Amino acid sequence: LIFLRHHIDDGLKYEYLTVENPLELWQNLNDRFEHLKAVVLPKALNDWSQLRFQDFKTVSEYNSTLFKIVSQLKMCGEVITDDMLLVKTYRTFHASNVLLQQQYRLHGFKKYCELIGSLLIADQNNELLLQNHDSRLTGSAHLPEVNAISSHFGGGRGRGRERGRGCVNGRNQNFLEPYNNNSMKWQNPDSKQRQNNAGQAQSKKGNCNRCGMEGHWYRACRTAKHWVDLYQASLKEKGKQV
């Protein structure tokens, strides 16, 4: 009688407080709650048929819900084996994980606990992988600074600096030079060439110093001599006016 009163609900304790015979208390509880199997079993069977592994975000949630339904079925007298649990899990994988489901089948798991253990490990590893990816996206790492690279090749004093500059071959030396001791900055070797091209383009667009015409240089001038003399004379007249 003490054992039964200890494990029943507090409301039932007060309701059956006057019952002193343990057999009578047991029969009363049995008559009151025996019909719950008929209520629980249909819902448990429906939950079992609707259970899908693909409907859960994590393996732990699926495993918890599965064992909750299995416990209700076993309480109602239904027999649930490991083969039934394995087949239930394999057949409810998401359609995009067909190859993954086949790989787990090939492992030949005999117990559901072995399968769920492998799924939990894979789920945890995937979660850690995603966390590491989200913590720093691809390409977000800081690149090494230019000054640090320049100091590695051309910086320092004494023998170390001479050794660093002397080991550069001719092809790479054109890329590394010119080196500015004062500013510790790189100079693009193509910038000087672009400046020269820009200067040449401007000189092409300017007037020829021999004839005053556009589109050619002084050395490439082919203007007749009398036109050149007229142009030079006009320049002298302008100089006198100034």
TrEMBL record:
<feature type="compositionally biased region" description="Polar residues">
    <location>
        <begin position="170"/>
        <end position="206"/>
    </location>
</feature>
<feature type="region of interest" description="Disordered">
    <location>
        <begin position="149"/>
        <end position="206"/>
    </location>
</feature>
<dbReference type="GO" id="GO:0008270">
    <property type="term" value="F:zinc ion binding"/>
</dbReference>
<protein>
    <submittedName>
        <fullName>UBN2 domain-containing protein</fullName>
    </submittedName>
</protein>
<dbReference type="GO" id="GO:0003676">
    <property type="term" value="F:nucleic acid binding"/>
</dbReference>
<dbReference type="InterPro" id="IPR036875">
    <property type="entry name" value="Znf_CCHC_sf"/>
</dbReference>
